[in-house]
Amino acid sequence: MTDKKILTGREVIELSFDYKKFGWSLGCAWNKIYKATLFNDLRFEKWRYYEDGLIFPFLFLNVNKAAIVHEALYDYVQRGNSIMHSEMSIKKIKDDDYSMHKWIDLFKNKDEMLYRRSIQKYKDWIINKWISYRPILSENDMCYYLQQQFRVYERIEQSANLKRNIRDRIAFINLNILYYMSKILP
To answer: Among residues 128, 110, 134, which one has the least CA distance to residue 167?
Structure first.
């Protein structure tokens, strides 16, 4: 967790890649209070799942000052019929995939470090979806697509972390190997 009170928007985006370390997510819309002018030229995409994660880097990339307050200042209500509580679907996976590509495209020519972090985030996402939702992916011909995507991005960005690098090398060969390993290894 950062002890810094005021950050740049870029620093907020950088922190968002490590959200699991902090126990909270910066990519969602509900845990922020926004200056209205941030939305002058941006809108949430209609009829798309995970639109808050999609718009997040576009909102923060040019923000000069952002504050992170580690205090609940309002209540967040979770409805039983919300997206968060609905079953996974191929539409959700495709919309999330679209969002990942938007992040990568946004940073490609603007910020090398955020570009590489976006690629690693996407590769981690592919592995997670493959292990968690392989039956849905198989039924909808997404397996081949995701395997090809993983191979494309693994050629661009290899992790310096040895454990992650080995995992990514196995996934590069065939994501099914990781899937079956996840079933037999803790």
So the answer is: 128
Report how far residue 64's alpha carbon sits from residue 88's, in angstroms, rounded to the nearest whole number.
Answer: 36
Q: CA dist 114 to 26, 48, 55, 105, 107, Å?
A: 15, 24, 15, 11, 6
Specify the pLDDT at position 114. Answer: 95
CA distances from 164 to 65, 115, 133, 158, 167 (A): 33, 18, 21, 9, 5
CA atoms within 13 A on the CB side of 126: 29
Consecutive H or E run containing 7: strand 6-7
Coil, strand or helix at 3 = coil
Distance CA 35, CA 150 (A): 37
Q: Is residue 4 over pLDDT 70?
A: no
Q: Do 128 and 182 contact (CB within 8 A), yes or no?
A: no
* pLDDT (mean) for 39-48: 88
With cut-offs at 50, 70 and 90, classify the pLDDT of residue 105: very high
The torsion angle over the Cα atoms of residues 112, 159, 178 and 27, rounded to 10 degrees, is: -40
Residue 53: which pLDDT band, with cuts at 50, 70 and 90?
Answer: confident
Q: Taking the complete model, does pTM exceed 0.85, yes or no?
A: yes
- Bridge partners (DSSP) listed for residue 7: 66
